[in-house]
Each structure stands twice: as C-alpha cells, then as structure tokens.
Amino acid sequence: MIYSVALSTELNKQALSHMLRADGQEDLCFALWRPSQGRDRLSGLLWKIILPEAGERQVHGNVSFLPSYLERVIDIALENQAGLAFLHSHPMPGWQNMSQDDIDAENRLAPTAMAVTGLPLLGLTLGTDGAWSARFWNKVGSHKYQRNWCGTVRVVGEKMRVTYNDVLVPELNFKGELSRTVSAWGNKEQQHLMRLRVGIIGAGNVGSIVAETLARMGIAHIKLIDFDSVEQHNLDRILHSRPLDALLQHAKVQMLSRELKNSASASPFTVDALEYSIVEDYGFRAALDCDILFSCVDRPLARFVLNFIAYAHLIPVIDGGIRAEAKKNQNGMLRADWRSHIAGPSHICLECIGQYRSEDVSTERSGYLDDPSYIAGLPDSHFIKHNENVFAFGLSLAALEIQQFLALLLNLPGELVRKSQMYHFVDDTTEYDERTCNSNCSFPPLTALGDHAETKVTSQHLIAEKARANRSRFHHSLSYWILKVFKKKCNQ
Questions:
Q1: How far is CA 357 from CA 100, 137, 344, 350, in A?
Q2: Tens digits of per-residue pLDDT, 198-229?
Q3: pLDDT digits (tens, 9 = 90+) for 325-336
Q4: CATH code of the domain covering residue 190
C-alpha cells in the first residue's frame, strides 16, 4: 500500500492563512479527513479545518495545544464520523522531516485518534513555501503505531500543486530526445509532470492519442482503463491499432500498452493495462490510484462516475467531446465542434456543463442504450446515434485536453485552466465558457467525502463482462488450435 493526501485549494488557503505566521513562529491546528481507498493507494482527503479558539493553544517559538482543544475536535470528529488530522508548521521550506518532539507528539495522539474514529491519525507538516509533508500512523500491534510516510500531498482546485516525497517518489531520468520538450518549461516542471500517476479512461480514438502524447512527454506512470476490444470498424481511428489486433481480438488497453512502451521517454516507465470499465468496482478503485484522469469516454454512466471521482475523491478529470454532423444530403459538413474542460473543485461539473444528463445515466443503467430495438426508436439527434469518431477530430480534441492538462499543472499566468474551450470547425471560432455549477448541483457538496460519500456509483457491467468473456473464449480456442497444429507437425 502506498499513501497520499489531498486537499482542496479552499482548505489549503485556510490552513496557510492560519499557520504561516507573520512573526515566523510555528503554529498548529486540527482537521478532519476521509479515506479514499484505491487498489494500491490510500489517500487521506482533508475535509474540514478546525481552527483553535482563544486559550486552546500556546505559541512560544514552538507551539502546543491544550486538552480542551483536542476534546472539542474529538466531539466534532465523532459527530461527522471522520478521521483526525494534526497539522503544524515548520520555519523552513520544502518537504519536512520530523523532529523527535514531533514524533513523540503524534505518537501520543495516534492511539486516541484510532480509538475514537477507527481511522489512523494523519499528520501533516507545512513548510514556509506552502509545501506539505504527510504520514499515516497505522496500528501494528497492541499499543504500537507505525509511521507510514506519504509519497505525495496534492492541492486540488483551479490549479493542481503537488509536493513530492523525494525518498518515496524520487526524481526520474528521461531519454536525451526529450531535451527539447524540457527546454519549453524547465527541469523542475518536467519532474513534476513525470512523477504524476495519470489515468486514461477509454483507449479509443481520443484516449489512444492522449496516451501516446503523455508517454512521449515523459509521464512515467500511465494507467489505461477500457474493457473493449480492437475491431475492424475502428482501425481507422485508434492510434497504433493494426488489422492483426482486430483479427486476434486484442483488448484496446493491451494493444496500446504494447506500443506505449516503445514511445515512452521516461526511465523507468510503467503502463498498467486494465480490461475493466470505470463503472465496475475494480476499474473505479484503480482510477483512485491516479493523481489526474483523462475522460475519453462517450457514455453518460462513465462520465457520471468520473464526475463523482473529481469531487468526492479530489482527482481532477479532464474531459472532452465531439459533435459532428453532415448535411441532410450527406454532401458536405453541417457542423463539427469539440470541447475540452476540467471537472473538480473550483471547476464546473460535467453534468452542469452539459456533457451528460442524469436521465441518460438512468437509461444506461437499465440497459436500454445497448438494446438495438430501443435505439432504433430514438430520434436521429440522440447522442447514441452520433458518429463523431473521426481521427482528425479526435486528434484536435486530444490536443485541447493536453493543453488543459498543462495549464492545470504548470505555473502559467493565463486563465485557460478555468475555462471550457469549444472550437467550431466549420466557422473557425472558439468559445470560452466560464460558467460555474448550478446552485442546486449535487456534486460540489460531495467534495472530499471520499469513501464516506453515500452515493453508490459502481455496479455490475454486463457489456464489459461479455467483452472479457468473448476474448477469453476466443484466445482459449486459438491456443487450442495452434497447439493442435503444432502437435500434428511434430508427429509428421
């Protein structure tokens, strides 16, 4: 298990305002946190800062809290069924280690936190430059607690800032051919990009191009999540796909994984190919291991799940979509538009911006969007009947999504990251959308609830199960016939 912490920009500002004192002295406060359990990573999501009231702490060069403060915080934690986090500042920049006094203080708090909340104590230290360090105090025996350092602390909002534990997440090497890419923004920003864990949900037209771009940019850990197979009819629009992949019914993620290893410029490079849907619990939990996600899907249910992750689990989602339409006589193009945007705290959600409708999510859950007879009765304007998977359009959308990715992560002065971009191909114009979520939107209130969010988003996905079963039967049959032919040759 690896560990991480995430907090929203709003909570980060509140903590910094309190603990980075003008007099240079250290300070402290408590907070509540929620778990976000991925397949390989546990993230502690800071949910609420509880500042000390008058007489609840003493600042004297170092800083200490009084029992009344802890008692008040425990009552609030119990009321909200949340974990306990202890935050304090150090008078120096960067990722902070711990003094013996720090260790003793958190070690004394750990049994209380576990006994009261059932969750380990989360300790965080703030440097003078706004960098965070963090650790979990896990129970390993009777009255014995072990400190487990986090690899990253992520601040998520309009921009995304990450503090890395250089011991657990060291700086990486990159191949010489990447030098010109690095010259565009410098080694510090390049190391920031390379050490991110990036998930790509959907390995089709747009997803395959995004994945190739990220691998060539030096991203060292890419996770591909898609249950589908390469088929003859999509060879024209999935990067790297070949007729043999369709003939042998290769999974899209396996095909793309094979090719990305040849394109990657980071060393070492890891690509995880997962033949699941984001709607299934396995795919969902795997996505929670990522720092940022690309939504390259075309169904409302998958977008709903990704929208939920963006807020409840503090993992920004870069999403996009294409709408193309020919003239009625099929003689010329009526429209071709593509849009890219970011979902998550400080950004408009995918439902409010119109990327899916809640009623379409319910329809898909009921299985109707995979029922040919139901689809036949839908109007031609329905999204399920759109045919926008043109490689050239996918290439343009992937470029917009990569721009959003860079604007979110690099220290740029512009406001691109706040805006949804819509490009109209026919009349060559670009719209910028700065809307926020509707006042009654249900997603912002989910921010940082993690696994404690009451919304259930995962379920059985029959189409994904069928796709895996079909591949398994085909490959088993193929192996059988290859072995039979081989034995016959040997007997001759």
A1: 54, 42, 18, 9
A2: 999 999 999 999 999 999 999 999 999 999 99
A3: 888 777 788 888
A4: 3.40.50.720
**How many C-beta neighbours within 10 Å does residue 411 have?**
11
106 with 212, same domain?
no
User: DSSP labels for 63-107?
Assistant: EEE-HHHHHHHHHHHHHHT-EEEEEEE-SS-SS----HHHHHHHH
Q: What percent of the chain has pLDDT over 90?
A: 78
Q: Are 333 and 426 a contacting pair, CB within 8 Å?
A: yes
Residue 492 has what pLDDT?
64
8 Å CB contact between 316 and 408: yes
pLDDT tens, residue by residue, 122-159: 999 999 999 999 999 999 998 899 999 999 999 999 99
Q: Tell me the C-alpha to C-alpha distance, in Å, between residue 375 and each of 227, 342, 385, 388.
A: 22, 30, 8, 17
Pairing of strands 132-141, 221-225: unpaired
Last-in-domain residue among 164, 185, 201: 164
Helical ranges in 219-296 per DSSP H: 243-247, 252-263, 281-287
Q: Examine the domain organization and report whether 414 and 318 are in the same domain.
A: yes
Print the domain residue range for 155: 2-164
Place 387 in a pLDDT band, splitting at 50, 70 and 90.
low
One-letter amino acid for residue 13 of the chain: K
pLDDT score recorded for residue 486: 66
Three-state secondary-structure class, residue 276 = coil
